[in-house]
Amino acid sequence: MRTRTIVRRLVALLPMLLLVALMIFGITYLVPGDAAATIAGEGASEADIARIRHELGLDRSFFAQFTSWLGDLLHGDLGTSLTSGRSVGDLIRSRAPASLSIGIAGMVVGIVIGTSLGVMAGTKIRSARDRAAVVAASVGVAMPNFWLGLLLVTVFAVNLGWLPSSGYVGLTEDPVDFLRHLILPALALGCATAAEICRQTRASLANTLELDYVRTARMKGLPRRQVVGKHAFKNAASPVVTTIGLQATVILGGTVIVERVFGIAGLGTSAIEAVAARDIPVIQGIVLVTTLLAIVINLGVDLVQMYLNPKVRVA
């Protein structure tokens, strides 16, 4: 993996980040409603609303507001919440651990279950286990995560009482309770991801096992586990890694719904509250952070692809 290629990829992200910042600010600028009127409250006079609008800088032109916002971003300032007066950066730092925890846990569930079922099915096409994996993947893709979340709460929290139905406990507060609160949200998030990864792993591995070099390895008498694990899976992993990267960005959006189902105070909950209150700085900050996470994930996928596929390394 050449350092020059990695540096070139990183430099190429700079104009993308500027475009992303412009799009985020432009979309929130066009959001209907008046934040100044929301802050002033019902019964406020036009003079009070105009004064608040001037204090917030909302009466300036789009370009003036954008350049001011971008300048603050470059200094690490995401702004201040219009409703609570709290720093947006502090708000994100306090809410991000919960969202990242359930997102990472959901991704782990998806990768472990998806790749396991995919390998089991891909190594034995048209067998009973292959058909079972295909059916399970189809059900997982079709099942909405909010419905699955409610079902999991009903069965494991309400009826059986094994796991908590809502809330979040930090890892440093109580590691055991942290895991107990994480299981149901992770399953609700990870099942659809597992289904997609399973389908891709199955198809990619089945195709790879039909290639000549794999057949040659079999003819040499190598154990099946070695043929699959050492010779076939690495080449089959390239499209699977791409699918994992795509599903990671899907999970970023899915956390919004799952947080509401399980009563978790994360970034998704904050985003919904900010939209309802027309708290533009909070919306901009959360969207910007999640977009940056998606870009970092895609960059990570590119780096893994460079390792798996030498042709990508030369490009």
Portion in strands? under 5%
Largest sheet data: none
How many helices? 13
Q: What average pLDDT do the residues reach?
A: 81
CATH level-two architecture of the largest domain: Orthogonal Bundle
What CATH calls the topology of the largest domain is MetI-like fold
CATH class of the largest domain: Mainly Alpha
Description:
The protein is built from 13 helices and no strands. Helices cover 79% and strands 0% of the residues. The chain is an all-alpha fold and 315 residues long. It has helices at residues 3-29, 35-40, 46-56, 62-74, 88-122, 128-142, 145-159, 175-208, 212-219, 224-262, 267-277, 280-308, 310-314. The chain folds into two domains: 20-74, no CATH class; 88-314, Orthogonal Bundle (MetI-like fold), CATH 1.10.3720.
